[in-house]
Amino acid sequence: MSSDVRGAKLVWRQPHLLEFQYERAMILEFTNLWGSNEIKPKASGGDPYWVEIRLAPTSPDSSLVTPNNDFR
């Protein structure tokens, strides 16, 4: 779950690797692995389809917390 998202974009970096790019966001309850038993590639022999998800801030000022312990 996320809120206050700015500049969000999803980018497939390579098979099984999805990058969530953002300028700034408050992200709660993040999990970096997603799988599905309903998607089964022929080469996998019936194993679940797995995707790693990476958070990738695009701005050097992406932190919501300031050095003074305030929120932006």
Task: Explain how this protein is built.
The protein is mostly beta strands and 72 residues long. It has one domain (2-57). It contains no helices and six strands. Strands 2-3-6-5 form a four-stranded mixed sheet, with no helix packed on it. The chain has a two-stranded antiparallel sheet with strand order 1-4. Strand 2 and strand 3 form a beta hairpin. The radius of gyration is 16 Å and the shape is elongated. The model has no long low-confidence stretch (mean pLDDT 84).
Topology (elements, then pairings):
Elements: E1 2-6, E2 9-14, E3 17-22, E4 24-27, E5 33-36, E6 49-57
Parallel strand pairs: 3-6
Antiparallel strand pairs: 1-4, 2-3, 5-6
